Amino acid sequence: MLELVPRETNQNPDQESVEEPVSKETLLARIAGGDQDAFSALYDEVSPRVFGLIRRLLVDYSQSEEVTQEVFLEIWQSASRYEPSKGGASTWILTMAHRRAVDRIRASQSSRDRDVKIGIRDYVAEYDNVSETVEVSIEHERVKEAMTQLTELQRQAVTLAYYGGYSHSEVAKLLSVPIGTVKTRLRDGMIRLRDELGVAS
């Protein structure tokens, strides 16, 4: 943490204090040399604007304070990289503040997105497993009972096509009958099943 040392003054208390304003560019040059007084002066001069810019972007007061501290720490550490030929000190500082605030927004958004993805991945829909098992079992018994009402030929065709997964042409080969016959048996068998199960066509 930076420790600010109070400035020493050699002025006579009876004399009126008149200090020449020092440019931010000059203050940055001094900060690059480790001058804490220059850093304190720069902080006093620009911190309200830096905080205001960051607060407008982040809204959250606490985060704005944190990012403002990060900006001034970066100024202290990188003042030697400031080049007056590329723009004014205020622009350099405010650009840094804007970049830091945007980085914080992106990091927060990224964290929220990650939390949402993890939440979706880990979400398991609750359902009544016992109830579902009973319903499937009852339906299975009803279909089994309905299948007994089909003719033997219809039952063979339906079993091979719907339970065996064979195509119509494969069923025709297995039963050694024309494909048209298989289609007729399947159609008639399904109509009979629907009637037995009370399913509307």
Number of strands: 0
Q: What would you call the shape?
A: rod-shaped
Helix proportion range: over 70%
Task: Write down the secondary-structure element order.
Answer: HHHHHHHH
Number of helices: 8
Strand content: under 5%
The major sheet is characterized as: none
Low-confidence residue ranges: none
Topology:
Elements: H1 24-32, H2 36-58, H3 61-78, H4 89-122, H5 129-147, H6 152-163, H7 168-175, H8 179-197
Helix pairs in contact: 1-2, 2-3, 2-4, 3-4, 5-8, 6-8, 7-8
Describe this structure in words.
Helix 2 crosses helix 4 (89-122) and helix 3 (61-78) packs across helix 4. The chain has 201 residues and is mostly helical. It is rod-shaped and about 110 Å long. The chain is built from 8 helices and no strands.
Briefly say what this structure is.
The protein has helices at 24-32, 36-58, 61-78, 89-122, 129-147, 152-163, 168-175, 179-197. The chain is an all-alpha fold and 201 residues long.
Structural key phrases:
201 residues; mainly alpha; 8 helices; rod-shaped
